[in-house]
Amino acid sequence: MAVYVYAGAAPVVVKGGGGASGGLFRMDVNGGEWRELSAGLPNNVEARAISIAPSDPNTVYVGTQAGPYRSADAGDSWEAMPLPGNEKLVWSILIHPTDPKTLYVGTQGTTMYRSRDGGASWKEITPPEPAGMVKMGFPCRVIRLSLDPTNPDHLWSALEVGGLLRSRDGGDSWESCNAGLLKFTDDPRLRSKIVSDTETEGMMDSHAMAVSAVEPDTVFLANRMGLFRSGDGGMAWDEMGIAKFSPLTYARDVRVSAHDPKRMYAALSVAAICDEGSLYRSEDLGATWKRFDHGVSIDSTLMTVAESAATPDRVWCAARRGQVFGTQDGGKTWNQYMLPPKGAGVYALAVG
Q: What is the pLDDT of residues 11-28, one digit of tens each?
């Protein structure tokens, strides 16, 4: 039986001034050859989010520049799941862990959409901009959606570059989690201003978040300044001190294992566009970390980590310029595969 890795790419300015056109790609881990997927997808598809249904590895969702799409045959063909109004650029997709008909997608600004019928219809959810949202040269976007496995009505929305929002009622209402995050900018070490006029930019530059069933209402946030933890659902925050374990602290992704709620993965690099990345793993919910990738030279920003729902031994990663690598044996050995040149703008990864 084929086991697939999916990689999504979109246009991005890379070091040296070049760019990549994007695309959605699939590889059988036993074959090692990438296939570009296109049947039913928009022309010149830009894929920034990919999710595999936990209950069925053949059901795959992808977020594109023209809204969400679904495949029922492992990516051989796709159908649109139109959102209300105009076509929306999708940045994140969340599948409810116990009710596969409940889906969430995140788009531009603070706008999200929820479906209770498997994507046949959608409700638009647009919370007000939270205090602290930074005005940049690109729109804010809902970069990651997460929920509490022990209470799926508790949701969080990570905004790039707007911090964090939370909901206690399945997405009907939202409140800001930014007050505690903004307090960190009292420390000069955690101030960062690149393309805005405020040094709070770095703390508001959310990239990913995760929630573990072993500590309900504890949220882990990855942003430009590192890794942060809240034990009360996002009101008060602590810095996790990743610099004690890794020389690289720019955090692009953080994941909690589906197989062990105390196991976490973090994708760490130097900056958004750089020549180095690293993958770290924690076995104690972020108290300590060790480098997990071995024998792999990561040549650009490590963007994303994906663990298989079928086995904890299968973990894959993707770096900005199209380098995809993974382990099938829990980290003992690693293999790497470059995407085609047009895929050198990786945003998303998923593995069956």
A: 875 444 455 689 999 999
Q: How far apart are CA 78 and CA 101, in angstroms?
A: 17
**Residue 320 token pair:** 């900005």
β-pair partners for 156? 146, 166
Please give the DSSP secondary-structure letter assigned to residue 13.
B
Closest-CA residue to 322 (of 18, 4, 3): 18
DSSP class of 108: B
pLDDT of 17 reads 44
Tell me the two tokens of residue 95.
């599948």
Residue type at position 305: V
Q: Return the SS3 of 244.
A: helix
pLDDT, residue 20, reads: 67
Nearest to 306 by CA among 119, 37, 57, 104: 57
* 274-295 pLDDT per residue, tens: 999 999 999 999 999 999 998 8
**Architecture category of domain 4-351 in CATH:** 7 Propeller (2.130)
Region 297-323: what's the mean pLDDT? 97
Around Cβ 276, how many Cβ atoms within 10 Å? 18
Which position has the token pair 């881990």? 29
Distance CA(342)–CA(64), nearest Å, equals 16
- Helix, strand, or coil (residue 203): helix
